[in-house]
TrEMBL record:
Its EC number is 4.1.3.34. Keywords: Lyase, Magnesium, Metal-binding. This is Citryl-CoA lyase. GO terms for molecular function: citryl-CoA lyase activity; magnesium ion binding. It is an enzyme of class 4 (lyase). The keyword Metal-binding applies. Mg(2+) binds at residues 151, 178. InterPro entries: Aldolase/citrate-lyase_domain, Citrate_lyase_beta/mcl1/mcl2, Pyrv/PenolPyrv_kinase-like_dom, Pyrv_kinase-like_dom_sf. Coiled coil: none annotated. Its cofactor is Mg(2+). Residues 32-244 form the HpcH/HpaI aldolase/citrate lyase domain. GO terms for biological process: oxaloacetate metabolic process. It comes from Albidiferax ferrireducens (strain ATCC BAA-621 / DSM 15236 / T118) (Rhodoferax ferrireducens).
Amino acid sequence: MPAFFLDRHRSPNDNVRTLNIESKPVQSNPPRSMLFVSGEKVERFAKAMAAGADLVCIDLEDAVHPQRKLEARNNVLGWLKLQPRTDTGPRVALRLNGLRTAEGLRDVVALVDSGVQLDWLLLPKVEDKADIQCIAGWAGAQIGAIAALIETPLGIENARSIGRAGGKLGALMLGGADLSAELGAQFDWEGLFSARGRLVNAARAAGVQAWDVPHVDIGNLSGLSEETRKVLALGFDCKTAIHPQQIQIIHAAFAPTPADLDWAKLLVQAVPDGEFSGAFLYQGRMVDAPLVRKARRIVELSRLQ
């Protein structure tokens, strides 16, 4: 599905701004859900791919024992080499170890040498936009888009700068477990509320997606549903998951209500000539670019249910 962002052009003749909506390649088809699977568990890869998630992320970082990093790396890249590139099924992501670690550097070298093509690459513990620029320089030709995991206080402070790294950066993702530990905060809604708000604002300011941390209480599906609705209300694009049973709950939370869908369809149809070129009156109210973007997103989400 296309995603949209605001491109502000100043007229050379006056000080009036015209707002246009354009597509941005790295933001196309924003995932509602991303399912993590351990890089140690090759036997679980097929199950993860069949779970219904929009994106499956094979994890070489936290989900792999330090003594089994080499084995996991070789197995994962070997498996990825054998996967056909198709337009159906979930997209595939790979989470590396941090670039400031020896294992992270080994991951990068192995990825480049393998020639494997990835839809997304997740880079953990990003604290500076230079991290994004480095990985894009080393392996950019093999990566569709990059998601920066923001999981330290310094990362939160620098989130806006990181979001403007450019290139193939497509998303900022909250790393709640590590962040809450460093903050001395609870790993829950209240403890991470401020960080979530700051990350969404940084992502929106930069025109990239915002992804939320997984809900780690696997058995609490009602809690997952409530949290997903809350992060959507904050402006997040994607809720990540650590168990296949969480995917259906996440997607249900994304489904628009009939009233919201009716409103969105009518508004999209009312856009003059189908292309937004400036604010206009609709049913007595002024409609601007963010409102059109919201309506289009609701319509696209309804098609995925």
